[in-house]
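Async update (no meeting this week)

Hi team, since we skipped the sync, here's where things stand on the single-chain job. The sequence we agreed to prioritize is pasted below, unchanged from the tracker. I ran it this morning and attached the output directly underneath so nobody has to dig for it. Comments welcome in thread, and please keep replies under the output.
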Amino acid sequence: MINVYYNFGDFQVNFIYQEMPMMLIGMAEGAWVTDRSGKLLAEARMTRLLGGENKQLQGIEIEEFHYRDNGKLIFYCKSEIVLPTAFKEKETGQIGKKAKEYFFIWPMMGF
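Output:
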Protein backbone atom coordinates (compact mmCIF):
# COMPACT_ATOMS: atom_id res chain seq x y z
CA MET A 1 0.00 0.00 0.00
CA ILE A 2 1.20 3.51 -0.85
CA ASN A 3 0.07 6.55 1.11
CA VAL A 4 0.03 10.06 -0.36
CA TYR A 5 -1.35 12.98 1.64
CA TYR A 6 -2.22 16.65 1.42
CA ASN A 7 -1.86 18.64 4.63
CA PHE A 8 -4.25 21.61 4.84
CA GLY A 9 -3.33 22.69 8.39
CA ASP A 10 -6.59 21.95 10.22
CA PHE A 11 -6.98 18.62 8.45
CA GLN A 12 -4.99 16.12 6.41
CA VAL A 13 -6.30 14.02 3.50
CA ASN A 14 -4.55 10.66 3.14
CA PHE A 15 -5.00 8.92 -0.22
CA ILE A 16 -4.73 5.14 -0.57
CA TYR A 17 -3.42 3.05 -3.45
CA GLN A 18 -3.93 -0.72 -3.13
CA GLU A 19 -4.19 -2.28 -6.59
CA MET A 20 -1.10 -2.36 -8.81
CA PRO A 21 -2.84 -0.98 -11.96
CA MET A 22 -4.09 2.03 -9.99
CA MET A 23 -0.64 2.59 -8.47
CA LEU A 24 0.91 2.57 -11.94
CA ILE A 25 -1.44 5.24 -13.28
CA GLY A 26 -1.29 7.21 -10.04
CA MET A 27 -5.01 7.17 -9.25
CA ALA A 28 -5.98 6.87 -5.59
CA GLU A 29 -8.65 4.29 -4.71
CA GLY A 30 -9.65 5.75 -1.37
CA ALA A 31 -8.98 8.47 1.16
CA TRP A 32 -9.50 9.37 4.77
CA VAL A 33 -9.41 12.74 6.48
CA THR A 34 -8.10 13.34 9.99
CA ASP A 35 -7.80 16.42 12.16
CA ARG A 36 -4.56 17.48 13.86
CA SER A 37 -5.14 15.02 16.70
CA GLY A 38 -5.71 12.10 14.30
CA LYS A 39 -9.49 11.89 14.70
CA LEU A 40 -11.33 10.60 11.61
CA LEU A 41 -13.43 13.37 10.02
CA ALA A 42 -14.34 11.80 6.67
CA GLU A 43 -13.50 9.04 4.23
CA ALA A 44 -14.10 8.32 0.57
CA ARG A 45 -13.72 5.47 -1.88
CA MET A 46 -13.58 5.35 -5.62
CA THR A 47 -16.65 3.55 -6.95
CA ARG A 48 -16.16 3.71 -10.71
CA LEU A 49 -14.21 5.14 -13.60
CA LEU A 50 -16.00 7.72 -15.76
CA GLY A 51 -15.62 7.49 -19.52
CA GLY A 52 -17.07 9.15 -22.59
CA GLU A 53 -18.47 7.70 -25.79
CA ASN A 54 -14.96 7.06 -27.08
CA LYS A 55 -14.23 5.09 -23.86
CA GLN A 56 -11.48 7.55 -22.92
CA LEU A 57 -11.11 8.07 -19.16
CA GLN A 58 -12.77 11.34 -18.10
CA GLY A 59 -12.57 11.00 -14.33
CA ILE A 60 -13.82 8.98 -11.39
CA GLU A 61 -16.82 8.74 -9.12
CA ILE A 62 -16.27 8.61 -5.35
CA GLU A 63 -18.55 8.05 -2.38
CA GLU A 64 -18.00 10.42 0.55
CA PHE A 65 -18.78 9.76 4.20
CA HIS A 66 -18.40 12.62 6.73
CA TYR A 67 -18.53 12.08 10.49
CA ARG A 68 -19.36 13.95 13.69
CA ASP A 69 -16.93 14.13 16.61
CA ASN A 70 -18.63 11.08 18.12
CA GLY A 71 -18.07 9.03 14.94
CA LYS A 72 -21.69 9.15 13.71
CA LEU A 73 -22.30 9.72 10.01
CA ILE A 74 -23.56 13.26 9.27
CA PHE A 75 -23.16 13.47 5.48
CA TYR A 76 -23.05 11.20 2.44
CA CYS A 77 -22.82 11.89 -1.29
CA LYS A 78 -21.40 10.69 -4.59
CA SER A 79 -18.97 13.04 -6.31
CA GLU A 80 -17.39 13.23 -9.74
CA ILE A 81 -13.71 14.12 -10.00
CA VAL A 82 -12.87 15.08 -13.58
CA LEU A 83 -9.78 15.09 -15.76
CA PRO A 84 -7.54 16.84 -16.53
CA THR A 85 -7.94 19.09 -13.48
CA ALA A 86 -8.56 16.31 -10.88
CA PHE A 87 -11.04 18.66 -9.14
CA LYS A 88 -14.55 17.81 -7.98
CA GLU A 89 -17.07 18.93 -10.55
CA LYS A 90 -20.37 17.49 -9.35
CA GLU A 91 -22.01 16.15 -6.20
CA THR A 92 -25.20 14.03 -6.17
CA GLY A 93 -27.32 12.03 -3.74
CA GLN A 94 -26.52 14.24 -0.78
CA ILE A 95 -27.86 13.07 2.57
CA GLY A 96 -27.29 15.23 5.65
CA LYS A 97 -25.21 18.38 6.04
CA LYS A 98 -21.51 18.57 5.38
CA ALA A 99 -19.35 20.48 7.87
CA LYS A 100 -16.45 21.07 5.46
CA GLU A 101 -15.38 20.27 1.90
CA TYR A 102 -12.52 17.75 2.06
CA PHE A 103 -12.48 15.98 -1.30
CA PHE A 104 -12.25 18.91 -3.70
CA ILE A 105 -9.09 17.53 -5.32
CA TRP A 106 -8.07 13.90 -5.95
CA PRO A 107 -4.60 12.81 -7.09
CA MET A 108 -4.44 11.48 -10.64
CA MET A 109 -0.73 11.66 -11.34
CA GLY A 110 -0.71 9.88 -14.69
CA PHE A 111 -2.97 12.44 -16.36
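Quick observations from my side:
DSSP finds one helix and seven strands in the chain.
The mean pLDDT is 91.
Reply here if anything looks off.
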